[in-house]
Fold these 2 entries.
Entry 1:
Amino acid sequence: MGLKNSPDNYGLISKNLHWILAVLLLLNFFLGFIMGDLERGPLRSSLFHFHKSMGILLLGLIILRLLWRVINTTPIHLSNNQLIKRISKFVHYSFYLILLIVTFSGWIYSTARAGPVDVFGLFYMPAIVEKNDVIGQIAKDIHIYSVYIFISFVIIHIFASIYHHFFLKDKTLKRMWY
Ligand code: HEM
Ligand code: HEM
């Protein structure tokens, strides 16, 4: 298996990025919900810190993946149905867009509330806005709504994979696996 994509298969770099991102994104998604329900205290603070650090790491991986997609070929879609092909393309591109909105709104929200974001205690992401409660509230709403849109796309995406694998019985899922 090559590192790069070919017209009928995903390469190792795309596969690794796809599955590492999928696991980390879902983890951060559940963490986001759990941490919000906790009482104020050290556990809540550490989980918030971890969620934000992971979010910034994910932002980096998303940009990397987008660049890799742009400079690489994308394997040919296996369905002959034009509508399915269009929906698939739409969902795939929307993933990148919605994930950029999720991460940037999280970053803006954090800096509007608390200034630069400490990433795993290693470095700081600069504040991209001034401290401001109104901006903070708007960014928080965008973060939460965009996360819901993201997760509905994930659900559609998983159903599509299952449909390809068990009903159409084509190679769609296999060629994204190892
Ligand atoms: C990469 C993907 C990310 C995902 C999937 C994600 C997901 C979530 C979810 C599900 C929540 C809970 C929403 C709710 O309570 O209804 C949340 C809250 C939050 N997220 Fe993220 N997030 C991400 C990135 C980030 C980033 C990059 C930052 C900041 C640097 C961030 C900062 C926050 C903060 C501060 C909250 C708490 C909101 C509050 O309850 O006050 N998130 N996130
Ligand atoms: C957070 C979760 C996920 C995200 C954000 C995501 C995102 C994406 C994106 C953007 C693509 C397009 C290919 C590319 O640009 O490199 C893709 C392809 C694919 N994903 Fe996911 N994915 C996720 C989870 C999953 C899961 C859980 C499965 C399996 C059950 C899955 C199965 C596939 C398959 C089979 C393809 C190839 C589709 C094709 O060849 O047309 N993904 N995914």
Entry 2:
Amino acid sequence: MHPTQEFDDALPPAARSLIARAADFAGSVVAPQARQWEDQRRFPREAVQAACAQGLASVEVPAAHGGLGLPFGAKLRMVEEIGRHDFGFAFSLVNQHNAASRIADHGSAQAVARFVPALLAGELIGCTGMTEPGGGSDFAASATMARRAPGGWVLEGAKRWIVNAAQADVFLTFAQTEPGSRDRGIACFIVTADQPGFRREPPLAVAGIHASGTGGYRLQDCFVPDALMLYPPGQAFKAAMSSINKARAHIPAMCAGMIDTALARALARGARREAFGQPLLGHQGLRWSLADVATTLEALRLLTYRAASLIDRGLDAQQAAAMAKKFAGEQTLPAIAACIQAMGAEGLLDEHGLGRHLAAAKVMGFTDGTTEIMNERIGRLLQERARHAPDAPA
Ligand SMILES: Cc1cc2nc3c(=O)[nH]c(=O)nc-3n(C[C@H](O)[C@H](O)[C@H](O)COP(=O)(O)OP(=O)(O)OC[C@H]3O[C@@H](n4cnc5c(N)ncnc54)[C@H](O)[C@@H]3O)c2cc1C
């Protein structure tokens, strides 16, 4: 049985058909072009649009808003299939999806009508701006400010390290409305690239993930009408935190896709190439090294799918998602490196795409909370558990 089949079988038929469509799109559109996107340092806007046409940015968006209304697990498996060929592109698609889904779930009627159909169709590109030039881990310390004005808010500040920002049209921008109030004063606003006061920064040059269009933007005297406030103060921080478990689960799914590709390449080469009178896989040392990779991959999938299953059942997934993300952050890089090692120098060639995956495996340790922040989350949950545990002998 294919390792993902058990999980897929528990999903509704429409989700399985989405996963098949995603795999097909990944093989026919992403795989043949990923290297070129990276070499040209290009955000493939037309490919995002083509993915949208297949419904790949509509997964969790309710049917009432033109989406597919499928469970989170379907999106998780979709990004695993795309991530096996290009982490950056999968990341871009997730952010496109999430911009549409946030507006569909929480936007005003005006915002929904103006943005959701165009984001689902890929006519507009969306992104979410939390991180700033001054830092990302301490999100409540946001220095982007929103001050009240008649009929809306005026935003000042800058965002950096934002997926899709290189070409996005719609920017979900988190900002502080009450200096010093940390999480309580954070709100979120829909900003558009064509409005006065918006300035796009050049894309960031980061090896391995150029297709993600990661960049930044600045806002100066940028007016946002009340109807385009997505989350009011008091709700924005909570909304960001409640969606973070999903973000922390789909990054490991993309890592599983990358490791799976690397392992398949290493096994294919190991079965064919000979050294010292036998195929490479005939050598125990090499075989054991790939056995470690296969075990890591299995464990990563179990952690990741468990987090997805908790999320879809509405149960607390904080620890499960943080553990999956932490495990991926620590294990993906050595697993891909071991596969390259097993392939000999051949594994370094661009045509295998493993150098790109290796770079992405380092990058993912920062996205949606660093590995240290995962440790913080898990550690705090352990502290809580200890506080509520019955007294045990010291
Ligand atoms: C490719 C990419 C795409 C991204 N996409 C987006 C996006 O679309 N939207 C968005 O808003 N952000 C995005 N981010 C930003 C990401 O969320 C931040 O990089 C992340 O939150 C860390 O922030 P930082 O890089 O500013 O590091 P800092 O917060 O400056 O931290 C620096 C180091 O200190 C460590 N550290 C911080 N606090 C603690 C602590 N309490 N205990 C121990 N160690 C600590 C961190 O783990 C890190 O190693 C993206 C980042 C990357 C790399």
